[in-house]
Amino acid sequence: MNQRNQYARSYLHQLRKLLLVSHRAKKVLISGISAELEQYVEVNPQADWDQLVDKFGTPEETAQALLDNVDLPKVVVHRRWKRLALCVVGALILALIIYLVARVIQMQQETEAVVVETITIYDVRETEDPFE
Fold it and tell me: Which contiguous run of DSSP H or E holds residue 97?
């Protein structure tokens, strides 16, 4: 795609974010609209955001139209796996934090020391000085 047309890149970026499907399905869905965008930008190199929206619709509309052509269980399954993966990662992080806090507390208890000071008092009388 023409690197100079930032609007087309931004359009595709927003479209990718709105498609909640697997990476492979997203690639397939985006390939068609990407080719159309590329052709449009080649013909209209100075196309701005409004012209892209007039031609292709908003990214939200385009994403919805693309998702309407996808089998819904695939989308739901992808969302479930993503949610499950996030929950597992969150639980692992929480368990790690709890373990580290418990370990720090245990180390503090094990390394607690008692300092004993001994003071020795010598009875020094005025007797002869041994150093004289």
Answer: helix 72-110
